[in-house]
Design a protein that fits this description.
Number of helices: 9
Distance between the termini: 22 Å
Number of strands: 0
Keywords: Coiled coil
Number of domains: 1
Largest sheet: none
Order of helices and strands: HHHHHHHHH
Radius of gyration: 16 Å
Strand content: under 5%
């Protein structure tokens, strides 16, 4: 599969489909995507290391549901201001760390539609990363292909104005060896 071509077309489908979702659908999709990232072995450690803020899954989800995102957004802003890429001791982040930090920022963003698009694309990027750096790229390629299909199904559910399951990603990936790379 030409993954670049498929992802480019998929990104366009997301950009066209997500803005028509209801506020509840966007919130539920944001929570579902965030639950994928909580499955990564170092999600909480990475967030707390680079964005000094306590992160607990249930508390964060409750804050997303209730729109209490300002504390997270402020912590991200402070963290971004403190980064000096020209400093002698600057260390570039590893790719997986970037995916985690981007996902956290998307999950706590007030710009719901763009945040959901970004979060869904971060899931794809994360699976692509695993494919590129694992000992079993065919396994990850299959998951990546299935993820594109799954996200397209989510878009169909949005268009049909159906409720989304916030545990869909947790259930979908709970048995996937995300600590194997």
């Amino acid at each position: 599969m030409d993954i670049v071509q498929h992802i480019t077309a998929h990104t366009e489908r997301l950009r066209l489909g997500i803005p028509y979702a209801s506020a509840k659908q966007l919130r539920d999709l944001k929570i579902a995507g965030l639950k994928f990232f909580f499955l990564l072995p170092d999600f909480v450690r990475i967030v707390q290391q680079y964005i000094p803020i306590a992160v607990k899954q249930e508390e964060l989800i409750e804050d997303i549901v209730n729109g209490r995102l300002q504390q997270y957004q402020q912590a991200i802003e402070r963290s971004n201001k403190e980064v000096d890429v020209y400093a002698d001791d600057y260390e570039e982040l590893e790719q997986l760390e970037l995916f985690v930090l981007n996902a956290f920022e998307y999950a706590t963003s007030a710009d719901e539609a763009n945040a959901v698009i970004g979060l869904l694309l971060e899931i794809i990027d994360t699976l692509d990363y695993y494919e590129n750096f694992s000992d079993n790229p065919l396994y990850w390629n299959k998951l990546l292909e299935e993820e594109l299909v799954f996200q397209n199904e989510l878009l169909k559910q949005l268009k049909a104005n159906k409720d989304l399951q916030t545990d869909s990603y947790r259930i979908r990936y709970q048995d996937v060896p995300l600590d194997s790379c």
